[in-house]
Specification:
Layout: H1 22-32, H2 41-54, H3 67-76
Length: 90
């Protein structure tokens, strides 16, 4: 880790508003709990593929969101303030 090899954001979603902001990216993924951040998916993918192979199933990767989507989001809902975590409603 001292080499700095893992210091750069590896997420291919360059237009995402949390790109290169790992703390807030992971925080919002944990908050919403809908999926794992892209940079960590390869860890789970290997394990899921091995498990699926045991059950004689195949794993198919979901296509990436098109960059035009991020252009649209920024156009219709520009981010005015820096991201700040909110508490989940009970």
């Amino acid at each position: 880790m001292d080499s700095g090899k893992y210091a750069k954001c590896t997420c291919p979603k360059k237009k995402c508003e949390w790109h290169s902001d790992c703390f807030h990216c992971v925080m919002q993924h944990r908050y919403f709990g809908d999926h794992v951040p892209n940079c960590m998916q390869f860890i789970l993918a290997k394990k899921i593929e091995a498990l699926a192979g045991t059950a004689e199933l195949e794993v198919k990767r979901k296509p990436m969101t098109k960059s035009s989507y991020w252009d649209y989001v920024r156009k219709v809902a520009p981010r005015k303030k820096p991201y700040k975590a909110q508490k989940k409603p009970i």
